[in-house]
Fold each of these.
Amino acid sequence: MKIAVLPGDGIGPEIIEQAVKIISKLSPNAKLNFSPIGGAGYDSFGKPLPDETLKLAKESDAVLLGAVGDWKYDQLPRELRPERGLLKIRQELNLFANLRPAILFPELANASTLKPEIVSGLDILIVRELTGDIYFGQPRGIEENQDGDREGFNTMRYSVPEIERIAHSAFQLAQLRSKKVCSVDKANVLETTELWREVMISIGKNHYPDVELSHMYVDNAAMQLIRNPKQFDVMVTGNIFGDILSDEASMLTGSIGMLPSASLDQNNKGMYEPSHGSAPDIAGKNIANPLATILSVAMMYRYTFKLSGYAEMIENAVKLTLKQNLRTKDILDENAIEVTCSEMGEAVLRNLNI
Ligand code: IPM
Ligand code: MG
């Protein structure tokens, strides 16, 4: 097992430290190679994705990433900002399928801002296309237009092969769950997503007749996620809609600090990272929630290393830790015991049943 570990910025290093403890316990022979990305990459090598970090990531079986970004880099030119490092590594490794599960642990039903009966038992998988769409489409820029006004522009684009491959990912994941896919688009307004819908229908009909496919406009989907989230199972959508809907879905589960993610290429080589950001406001205080990162390690065992037994072991250890009433600040309630980031990591480690 060769794993590139990229802690990044903000709370990245603290949460990664906890996740690394878990890997070292489960796989003492795993080769873990650390390298900077994001603002840390800029500070060490002048680029948010240093060449040696990219090289290491390409040579590894999996990448474990903390988070990137800090206000102190806001004044840099766009190309040098931490977020660029993240977008570039996704693109360079061809990680087109981003899996963002939103699962509510029963112990956290009260941490959600929604009523417990709306969210209890929630288990949604958002499949977000990650290497196309308005994030990467050309032309893009800020230029002066004919009236002499500055004008910003980006381009939403999807080709048929790009839609087909994410469709296959979503349908195949649905076959392992309750065989329902809801494809989210804005086909009433945007041609790009009109094509998206057409391709989803044809892939579904020709390859996955056992999976029930439905469609929803993104504005309605945003509303339905709050109104009745349990109507969804697998949701598949493009890059920008997936970015927004996955943050929304995360809050259903109480805290964005609980949500892992996997970004996979055609061969299930993957990058694993928490869905949350670098939270510079709480960085270095040892109060961040490491569970999203630890659960991302579980996804790594499941999808890249095909060791679902290990994945379940980690997930069970997290559940047990929550049952023991241990909580970081973000998910704290009156009856719980507040722990730090590293104490949470230690508790999960102790609860690993190996
Ligand atoms: C995410 C983040 C990133 C994105 C940012 C940091 C570039 O919000 O992973 O959801 O927009 O994809
Ligand atoms: Mg986001």
Amino acid sequence: MAMRMNFNALPGNGMTSARTRARMIERLKTQGITDPDVLTVMGEVPRHAFVDEAFAHKAYDDNSLPIGHNQTISQPYIVARMTELAIDVPQRERVLEIGTGCGYQTTVLAQFFKTVYSIERIGGLAKHARERLAALGVLNTRLRHGDGSRGLAESGPFDAIMLTAAAPVVPEALIAQLKPGGRLVFPVGTDAQELRVIEMTPDGPLESKLEKVRFVPLLPGVA
Ligand code: SAH
């Protein structure tokens, strides 16, 4: 985890949020998150800095929260779970996130991978995330405003690709952008959604179906 940052000096990142984050970590453990590095990073990244001030007091609750433009920051459990799945790869050089949103998951990934590429289709969110990450000093990210549904072939192949919006069907085209041993972590489905992983094994792509989830939809085009 060469890129691990120290967020302690940030304004508003005092004892209170340290304590609420510690409670969040205890909850994540009871929910089945076991990777010690994921628990450490979730305890360090200041989630309250990624939501509107009006919601900052709820930032460490076990909920998704609005981030504007009808979108949400995923609940801490799902960020931790998807991170655990994405970092279980042979190398952690390059990860692609599709759906930057507020940039929280981007920042968590940036503690594990050398470079995080992240694409967001809504211009206002992409701009805000760019400003927020710069202010926080999260420098190993390459953010883009665009439609990420076809991935980012020119910057790949990737050690991991994560969708943070639900694809209507399995995004087959992204599998070609994975390195050998690489992993695609994604929610799929419309009404009923499921978290899945496709791992690029020597015998070809291997799909695992995991738990039921609830994400905003992956949408085509830019806004
Ligand atoms: N990882 C985010 C979650 C944001 S919600 C966070 O931590 O805040 C999912 C995001 O995916 C939304 O911001 C939505 O606008 C974006 N999205 C949906 N379809 C997309 C697409 N085709 N390309 C890029 N981003 C997309």
